[in-house]
Amino acid sequence: MKKVKIALLGLGNVGRGVWNILQMNGEEIMKRSGCQVEVAKILVRDPSKARAVKVPEELITTNFDEILNDDSIKIIVEVMGGIEPAREYILKSLNKKKHIVTANKMLLATYGDELFKKADEEEVMLNYEASVAGGIPIIQAINESLTANKIEKLYGIINGTTNFILSKMELEGSDFENVLKEAQEKGYAEADPTSDIEGFDAQYKLAILSSLAFGTKVKIDDVYREGITKITSKDIRYAKDFGLVIKLLAIAKETDGKLQLRVHPTMIPATHPLANVHDSFNAVFIKGNAVDDLMFYGRGAGDLPTGSAVVADIVSILRSDVDTENRLPVEKNNLWHKEIGEINDITSRYYIRTTVTDRPGVLGEITAIFGRHGVSLRSVIQRGRIKNEEEVGLVLVTHYTEEKQLQGAINEVKDIDAVKEINNMIRIEDFN
Ligand code: NAP
Ligand code: HSE
């Protein structure tokens, strides 16, 4: 049987998962790919680091050139993360006609064009299933299984860390900081967890997914982004009162000839299937014009689930022919030009939580401003005073309205003396 040598760049959470799967399922992988996979080298930053996985010492290196200059290594598995030196190592490897498997969404969303072009020129494969939604085979599904469809809408919970945090806050009343620490310990979070909690990670992933789903080049900045750091247990409780649940939702839909692309905390009906996606699970909900509604669900982060997607990408290269004959073409995701809509142009329902001085007439002043801006209110909740404090929480939920009208109203409401703070504004998605 043909033996194929591969190298891992990185032996952290994902690298460990890849190694363990190759040990655990070596025979299945060999039968399915027709090749025996041998890990020939593993690049790390610090060889003396204590690791949760045991690998033969002689495989570990800190010198990338040892891997690059070994012509017997045919596949490079980049699971180190970050932009540099990952980009440089991938470009150099492609130059040497080595196939690439990567889990690096930040790199692909930023330099995907350059890397895919280079892979095409060198006639090698660049696979990236693990870059979006961990173990869920969503890239393969969009690229292969859904090609008969025009995709109309895509909604995703595509960051495991934030979903883990929001689920624990909602179901167990846990504290944000403690749950984030737990997500880091479990290997869900990025090296810099700001990327998760401020929504950057989901923004990169939505740029990749929407490029594929809508056949157009989507840049990172085309995707509007907000993170979850302003969400408090109060917002979660109010959402519950309204029959809603808060998720960091990635939304891509084509309306009036424009693509709407956004990642932000979103209140969704507690009865929607996405509301029941908890823990580090991810889900991608797609509406195609032929297939109708589809939902993909699975672990969005963690060593083995992500490793599962990485190893499948390795197998797909082995099956395609590692020696480059019969190579499957690298995806072209720039079939059409699509205009990208502005966040101000969206129409949504909104939840607004404020803190106001409890005096006669305040509610009237606020609702009058909303009325003048054409924003119709659906519900208002005022929570009674706590002890003798004068300030109370006032929550407003609107009917469908344009974001620019809502923002105009909020800006004016802020200036009322009795309005102490606009604590939060969260969009509500009905999936209509
Ligand atoms: P990680 O735990 O931080 O591991 C990174 C590994 O890369 C470490 O082994 C590190 O070496 C090595 N490394 C980093 N910079 C290096 C450098 N300059 N030279 C040599 N080695 C270097 O990261 P991870 O969680 O496995 O994530 C890896 C990639 O997969 C990222 O792109 C991430 O976005 C993506 N991803 C992660 C998950 C997940 O669940 N964690 C899921 C999907 C995709 P040392 O061990 O010596 O420090
Ligand atoms: N940090 C990422 C997450 C890893 O939490 O979803 C998976 O891409």
Automatic annotation (TrEMBL):
For L-homoserine, which residues are the binding ones?
Answer: 190
Q: Does the keyword Oxidoreductase apply?
A: yes
Known EC number? 1.1.1.3
Annotated SUPFAM superfamilies: ACT-like, Glyceraldehyde-3-phosphate dehydrogenase-like, C-terminal domain, NAD(P)-binding Rossmann-fold domains
Keyword annotations = Amino-acid biosynthesis, Metal-binding, Methionine biosynthesis, NAD, NADP, Oxidoreductase, Sodium, Threonine biosynthesis
Q: Pathway it acts in?
A: Amino-acid biosynthesis; L-methionine biosynthesis via de novo pathway; L-homoserine from L-aspartate: step 3/3; Amino-acid biosynthesis; L-threonine biosynthesis; L-threonine from L-aspartate: step 3/5
For the protein in the UniProt heading, the enzyme class is: oxidoreductase
Active site (UniProt): 205 (proton donor)
Known catalysed reaction(s)? L-homoserine + NADP(+) = L-aspartate 4-semialdehyde + NADPH + H(+)
Question: Which GO-annotated molecular functions does the record name?
Answer: homoserine dehydrogenase activity; metal ion binding; NADP binding
Domain (ACT): residue spans on this chain: 351-427
Q: What positions does the entry give for NADPH binding? A: 105
- The protein's required cofactors: a metal cation
Name one process (GO BP) from the record: methionine biosynthetic process
The record's listing under NCBIfam families reads: PRK06349.1
Family listed: Belongs to the homoserine dehydrogenase family.
The name under which this protein is listed is Homoserine dehydrogenase
- Species of origin reads Clostridium paraputrificum
Source lineage: Bacteria, Bacillati, Bacillota, Clostridia, Eubacteriales
